[in-house]
Write a structure and sequence with these properties.
With 341 residues, the chain is α/β, with parallel strands linked by helices. The chain has two domains: 2-137, Rossmann fold; 143-327, Glycogen Phosphorylase B (Rossmann fold), CATH 3.40.50.2000. It contains 15 helices and twelve strands. The strands form two sheets. Strands 2-1-3-4-5-6 form a six-stranded parallel sheet, sandwiched between helices. Strand 10, helix 11 (261-268) and strand 11 (273-275) form a beta-alpha-beta unit. Helix 3 (65-79) crosses helix 5 and helix 8 packs across helix 13 (299-308).
Length: 341
């Protein structure tokens, strides 16, 4: 069977969505002939349609419901070309808000709809009537990232003066919704209890200047590192030395955390996580098992509990690692798609 993925995000483009498609495609390649067409972010639906007109695959895999789904729907109406759609969170929210009519038609005519969490599934308007064609296919961490060179770890520690420090880590797109600013605001209070604490933030985005401003205003330059352009090898090293991972996301009604693959990435290194129970994070993090659900008012207490109780942190990290190894692999998740095609 031949499948053609049309997506705006795919490696070497950095991001969780692209890694999601790449991971699933690699896992299914022994069973399917999968090709990828990278669509420019500025493309209109008719431009995508022109690409699809020359497609000879059995299925079109829609990476973004708009505008790619519109082109797939038209191909289906004109040429009976089968397609299925993958949804992640913000994409379905924006589509239903801005173009509810065509969004509904795209989903109703799809052979299959995959979503990255039960939360995203329930964001689909009228999902109950389409429940039979919806499959939850969870994102999975990149297992290759867990192979870390000890010399690189030592180099990272030396370069950033992290020897003997407790490391609190965030890895995310730098937007206000990720809640990084809330962690920075409580750093002075945390430093009173844990003077050797370093908060490492890895990511890029439009909110970077504001985060740097807050760090400067609070005179935290020695205790907070904000790093951009970090490659996978270096990222693995930071996960390896982290004492805890934190991403207290905020639900702004549109750009919501559909799942939160970074929680699993941290867990695959045996790092306990702290998260707000927002969106799909409830499925990525198991409260009091692999991590702790927090809030603005309890964040200092929750962080302190993991930093001061190494036994508890190690136990949560170990449970996270075992659960992820058992349940969150692309080989396991891809079977949900294969059995539907």
């Amino acid at each position: 069977m031949k499948i053609k993925i049309y997506t705006m995000e795919y490696p070497p483009f950095k991001g969780g969505v692209g890694n999601y498609y790449a991971g699933l495609a690699k896992a299914m390649e022994p069973r399917l002939d999968i090709k990828v067409s990278r669509v420019a972010n500025s493309s209109r639906w008719w431009q995508v349609l022109l690409l699809m007109l020359f497609n000879r695959s059995d299925y079109v895999w829609v990476g973004q419901i708009l505008p790619i789904g519109t082109a797939a729907y038209i191909c289906n109406r004109l040429f009976r070309k089968k397609y299925f759609v993958s949804l992640h969170g913000m994409d379905i929210n924006l589509a239903q808000q801005n173009k509810p009519g065509i969004t509904r038609k795209i989903l109703k005519n799809a052979e299959l709809i995959t979503v990255n969490s039960e939360y995203t599934k329930k964001r689909i308007i009228g999902w109950e009537e389409m429940a039979g064609k919806i499959e939850v296919v969870y994102p999975c961490p990149n297992v290759e990232m867990t192979e870390v060179d000890d010399s690189l770890i030592e180099q990272i520690k030396s370069s950033y003066r992290l020897e003997g420090k407790q490391i609190m880590l965030s890895v995310n797109r730098l937007t206000e919704r990720k809640g990084t600013q809330d962690v920075i605001h409580i750093m002075p209070e945390l430093l009173e209890k844990f003077p050797d604490l370093i908060y490492v933030v890895i990511g890029s985005g439009d909110y970077l200047p504001e985060l740097k401003r807050i760090v400067q205003v609070k005179n935290l330059e020695k205790n907070i590192l904000i790093l951009t352009g970090v490659g996978n090898n270096e990222l693995s090293a930071f996960y390896s030395i982290a004492n805890l991972f934190i991403m207290p996301t905020i639900d702004d009604g549109i750009d919501v955390e559909g799942f939160g693959i970074v929680y699993l990435e941290a867990g695959s290194f045996g790092v306990p996580v702290i998260a707000t129970p927002v969106g799909g994070a409830r499925e990525a993090v198991r409260d009091q098992v692999t991590g702790i659900y927090t809030s603005k008012t309890s964040m200092v207490k929750d962080i302190s509990s993991l930093l001061s109780n190494r036994g508890l942190a190690m136990e949560m990290g170990k449970k996270a690692k075992n659960i992820i190894k058992r349940e969150y692999t692309y080989t396991a998740q891809s079977k949900k798609i294969l059995q539907r095609l």
